[in-house]
Every structure is written in structure tokens, then in C-alpha cells.
Amino acid sequence: MKTIKVLGTGCANCKATAKLIEDTARAKDIAVSIEKVENIADIMAYGVMSTPGVVIDGRVVHAGGVPNKSAVEGWLAG
Q1: pTM of whole model > 0.85?
Q2: Is 70 exposed, middle or buried (0-12, 13-18, 19+ CB in 10 A)?
Q3: Contacts by 45-51 with C-beta closer than 8 Å and gap 24+?
Q4: Which domains are assigned to the chain?
Q5: CB-based burial, 47-69: b 16+ in 10 Å, e otherwise
Q6: pLDDT tens digits for 31-51?
Q7: Which of 51, 57, 61, 78 is the most exposed place for a label (fewest CB within 10 A)?
Q8: Three-class SS of residue 75?
Q9: Bridge partners, residue 7, by sequence
Q10: Can you tell me whether residue 13 is helix, strand or coil?
Q11: Under a CB-based contact definition with an 8 Å cutoff, are residues 13 and 66 in contact?
């Protein structure tokens, strides 16, 4: 199971990113655990200055804007 954190203060893009990851994982039958991180200090601890950010298994894979579906599929496959 992949551990995924969506970093952001709860904006529409952050919610869209979390939903995209959930939907893509479900469609690919990949088990994921998604956590939303909304505390600014916690977000900055990852070095993310532009949200939404995505952290998979402790590694930042995306920051700023909603990722495209093919990027999410690549993260889940890797």
C-alpha cells in the first residue's frame, strides 16, 4: 500500500488533487492511504512552497497546481 499525503490548506485544487488520486487508484485497483496535510508548518517542512503538493512514501513528487492523470498513474505504478 502506498502512503500518499496531499499538502494544502483545503483549497479547491487540493481537494481536486486528492480526488484525482483516489479515483485513479480505485480505477487501477491500487491500495493507497491518503492523508490531507493542512498545517502550514507541516507543509513547509517538506519544502513545498506552492500547493497542492503530493508526497508518496515520504518523497515529494509534485508541487503547485493539480497534476494531470497520466502523472498520477505514473506515481501509482512506480
Answers
A1: yes
A2: exposed
A3: 46/7, 48/7, 51/7, 51/8, 51/9, 51/11, 51/13, 51/14
A4: 2-77 (3.40.30.10)
A5: ebeebbbbbbeeeebbbeebbee
A6: 999 999 999 999 999 999 999
A7: 78
A8: helix
A9: 37, 53
A10: helix
A11: yes
